[in-house]
UniProtKB/TrEMBL annotation:
This is Alkanesulfonate monooxygenase. Its EC number is 1.14.14.5. The lineage of its organism: Bacteria, Pseudomonadati, Pseudomonadota, Alphaproteobacteria, Acetobacterales. It catalyses: an alkanesulfonate + FMNH2 + O2 = an aldehyde + FMN + sulfite + H2O + 2 H(+). It comes from Rhodovastum atsumiense. GO terms for molecular function: alkanesulfonate monooxygenase activity. Keywords: Flavoprotein, FMN, Monooxygenase, Oxidoreductase. Residues 6-328 form the Luciferase-like domain. The gene is ssuD. PANTHER family: ALKANESULFONATE MONOOXYGENASE, ALKANESULFONATE MONOOXYGENASE-RELATED.
Amino acid sequence: MTRPLDFLWFLPTSGDGAHLGSAIGQRPASNRYLREIAQAIDRLGYYGVLLPTGRGCEDAWITGASIVTHTERLKFLIALRPGVTSPGESARQAAAFDRLSNGRLLLNVVAGGNPADLAGDGLFLGHDERYEQAGEFLQIWRGLMQGRTVDFEGRYLRSRGGKLVFPPVQAPYPPLYFGGSSPPAHQLAAEQADVYLTWGEPPAQVAEKIADVRRRAARVGRTLRFGIRLHLIVRETDEQAWAAADRLIAHLSDDVIAAAQHRLTADSDSEGQRRMVALHGGDRGRLEISPNLWAGVGLVRGGAGTALVGSPATVAARIEEYRALGIDTIVASGFPHLEEAYRVAEWLFPRLDLSTGPAEQHLVNPAAIFAGGGALSANAPEFAGAR
């Protein structure tokens, strides 16, 4: 039996807007705006929200803590960074967030990143060493979160008499999400993660990654779940969706694209980032890399660079193709994130089997309101956030 989808949204803590690579219509990541997005997706029935990490955005833990009390059931997927924090301090931080939110913490293990950014944070390990160090970190961290006294001696980390006094709400600990495309990343996921996340590659490539992680997990007697990180451009028709995709990159010059592609390749040792860039090679002419899978976001944006584009029926069909591979978690986003959260929930959600439902039900028939000339729906995408 196929598991219902956990459908998460994204909190744009480095800013938001309707045009990539342009200041036109740009929105700062104010607490008020981020809170508005979080409250909207909480009300609309999203399972959770991903908060990004890195020096290009607001700190995920502080941002999450400032917003979580303004929501009711939304889960917060926040970065756990093995290379720049200690296992003990991270365990205390995570347990406190989980307790004070009544079990609404999810953890995104981030072992990689831009080497220049990592060096600025004091981490100078090579690519493969970072995953080895993350493995030691998680052994200590998981032991602490499960209430054990931890004595550990590793190549990178040590713990002597480590103990967590105040445990988390979720047992044995808040779920660990993890993404990475290299063999060391797959091995770490197989040994220690609960959910393996991939960026939005074509289904055949995603299938290969899932199969490899599954094989590795089976060798160590484990099973895990799988998710995918995607942008979404959903409109009433396929034609309208493709026009919206074109508008998203309409203000990008060739020089801006070339500079971004150089930065994404020269400054990163990420296998996942290499694969994202290879999907399109910076060429505007080959952005549809698989049916309805569009790589335009990756022309200038690092990380997840692809979007599913189409009508609700089309996008739902593509999501079902990923579900057939074993995907049961979607971490999605759209530009701008407030309006697109409404569109996705109102147009796409009714076509999907979701693990959550709307927190608020419509008490009237929206069609009757519009037909009768009544007040505009507060949930209408065009008017979201207009108050």
